Amino acid sequence: MEHAPTMTAVAARLTPGQDLLAELERLFAESGAGAGCVLACVGSLTTAVIRYADRPESATLTGHFEIVSLTGVLSPDGAHCHIAVSDGEGGTSGGHLMEGCRVYTTAEIVLGLLPGVRFSRPFDPQTGYPELAVETMQPEEE
Questions:
Q1: What is the dihedral of CA 78, 83, 88, 92, to 10 degrees?
Q2: 29 phi, psi to nearest 5 deg
Q3: Smallest Cα–Cα separation from 118: which of 108, 133, 105?
Q4: If DSSP codes are grouped into helix, strand and coil, which group holds residue 26?
Q5: pLDDT tens across 85-114, in order?
Q6: What is the pTM of this model?
Q7: Residues in a beta bridge with 6
Q8: Which top CATH class is 8-141?
Q9: Bridge partners, residue 21, by sequence
Q10: DSSP codes of every residue in 38-87
Q11: Are 34 and 121 a contacting pair, CB within 8 Å?
Q12: What residue stretches are annotated with the PPC domain (predicted)?
């Protein structure tokens, strides 16, 4: 009986001042994988740059924020991630993760790498955005 390849994980800790999105994309690119996802992220930010639902512009929040959720799909074409952060009063904001989110004390990240799969983001004329395309790879194509 043949088994499908097993997902592998990459774990990293980001340090103060690093850009969360840029580092996610760097870690994924360095892995050489064709498809990945964010399995876990806990940490804090001093700047959160978030694009809220159905808004063309981003909002920049400054202060001290806990990362309460980060989820995303990683491809060689870039990352598509959503984040939720909470402030010192428990107020929570969330949306599309943008560049410029700066780590406060730490961001502890675990990425899942998916063998045998390649994600890409071709332009979808129906939505007007680059959208996810999933391709199953043959072992000799990986």
A1: 150
A2: -60, -45
A3: 133
A4: helix
A5: 999 999 999 999 999 999 999 999 999 999
A6: 0.91
A7: none
A8: alpha beta
A9: none
A10: EEEEEEEEEEEEEE-TT-SS-EEEEEEEEEEEEEEEEETTEEEEEEEEE-
A11: no
A12: 4-135
